[in-house]
């Protein structure tokens, strides 16, 4: 359903600062959970992030584990 | 961890957050206002405007989204399938509603052998019929676009058109003036509601310097 989102959208939704979110994203990118694409929109730099299949699976696993732990 | 975080739910929220800006309400309400106000004018080529205003409104809506929503909220890219599905469903809803209305109106006017229920529906209960069609459009669009508040407009449409049926001088006549008043009322309400949502949206998501 969602292909990706830009940095501003994620900042708004998570309430994290630019630096904080940036550091999280770097780690997720290193782990192969997200892909980062830099582009220009209306002559302004725009960073778009996309959840990879591995990232999607990892999130579902995490969710499943947490659910079992809390049950 | 807050309750049960579901990716599908997060994605659904991404879709609905795009309509928190109230622009949809403002443009749809603006279109109803246009229909309502044009019903009171004597401009003879107004039927042509009905074909010009919707595509022009769509272009302006798209432009407004780019100017207001993306710089404040950020950008989410939906999959091609998702975008195609929403566009196709919205088109089907509007096409079917337009077809039903136009067929109904043409069947009701000047055809001597029309069925009694058509006469009743289009001559005696024409305002209720129009209100019903509008309510149905809002209801279906709310499902297609996942915008729950459109259901409220569905109920309002039924109420306003029913009130028109009860209180207008000659609600039994198929006339543009009869259609005009309810459209102006609903359109004004929607534009007002949209403006309220828009100012809330701009406050919640201030533009980055």
Number of strands of chain A: 3
Binned, the helix content of chain B reads: over 70%
Q: Encode the helix/strand succession of chain B as letters.
A: HHHEHHHHH
SSE-based structural type of chain B: mainly alpha
What's the overall geometry of chain A?
A: elongated
- Seen as an oligomer or otherwise, the chain set is heterodimer
Main beta sheet strand tally, sense and closure of chain B: none
Name a few traits of the molecule:
heterodimer, A: 71 residues, 3 helices, 55% helix, B: 209 residues, mainly alpha, 8 helices
Can you tell me about this structure?
The complex is a heterodimer of chains A (71) and B (209). With 71 residues, chain A is an alpha+beta fold. Chain A contains three helices and three strands. Chain A has a three-stranded antiparallel sheet with strand order 1-3-2. The longest helix of chain A is centred in the C-terminal third of the chain and has 18 residues, at 53-70. Chain A starts with a strand and ends with a helix. The chains are: A alpha+beta (71), B mainly alpha (209). Chain A binds chain B through residues 1-13, 41, 46, 48, 56, 59-60, 63, 66-67, 70, and chain B through 1, 4-8, 11-12, 14-15, 17, 70, 73-79, 82, 205, 208. Strand 1 of chain A pairs antiparallel with strand 1 (76-78) of chain B, so a sheet runs across the interface.
Concise account of the structure shown:
Chain A has 71 residues and is an alpha+beta fold.
Helix and strand layout, with pairings?
The complex is a heterodimer of chains A (71) and B (209).
Chain A: E1 2-6, H1 7-14, H2 18-30, E2 34-41, E3 44-51, H3 53-70
Antiparallel strand pairs in A: 1-3, 2-3
Chain B: H1 7-17, H2 23-39, H3 46-73, E1 76-78, H4 80-108, H5 116-124, H6 126-145, H7 150-167, H8 176-204
Helix pairs in contact in B: 2-3, 2-8, 4-5, 4-6, 5-6, 6-7, 7-8
């Amino acid at each position: 359903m969602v292909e990706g989102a830009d940095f501003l959208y994620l900042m708004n939704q998570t309430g994290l600062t630019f630096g904080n979110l940036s550091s999280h994203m770097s780690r997720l990118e290193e782990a192969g959970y997200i892909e980062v694409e830099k582009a220009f929109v209306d002559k302004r730099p725009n960073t778009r992030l996309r959840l990879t299949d591995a990232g999607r699976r990892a999130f579902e696993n995490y969710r499943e584990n947490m659910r079992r732990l809390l049950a | 961890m807050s309750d049960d975080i579901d990716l599908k739910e997060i994605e659904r929220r991404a879709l609905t957050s795009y309509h928190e800006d109230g622009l949809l309400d403002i443009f749809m309400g603006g279109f109803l206002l246009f229909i309502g106000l044009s019903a009171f004018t004597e401009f003879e080529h107004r039927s042509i405007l009905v074909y010009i205003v919707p595509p022009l409104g769509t272009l302006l809506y798209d432009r407004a989204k780019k100017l207001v929503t993306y710089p404040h909220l950020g950008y989410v890219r939906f999959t091609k399938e998702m975008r195609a599905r929403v566009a196709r469903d919205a088109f089907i809803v509007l096409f079917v509603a337009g077809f039903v209305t136009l067929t109904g109106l043409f069947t009701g006017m000047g055809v001597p052998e029309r069925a009694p229920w058509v006469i009743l529906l289009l001559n005696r209960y024409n305002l209720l019929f129009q209100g019903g069609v509008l309510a149905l459009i809002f209801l279906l669009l709310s499902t297609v676009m996942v915008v729950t508040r459109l259901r409220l407009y569905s109920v309002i449409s039924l109420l306003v058109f029913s009130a028109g049926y009860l209180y207008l001088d000659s609600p039994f006549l198929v006339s543009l003036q009869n259609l005009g008043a309810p459209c102006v009322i609903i359109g004004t309400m929607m534009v007002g509601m949209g403006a309220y949502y828009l100012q809330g949206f701009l406050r919640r998501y201030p533009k980055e310097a």
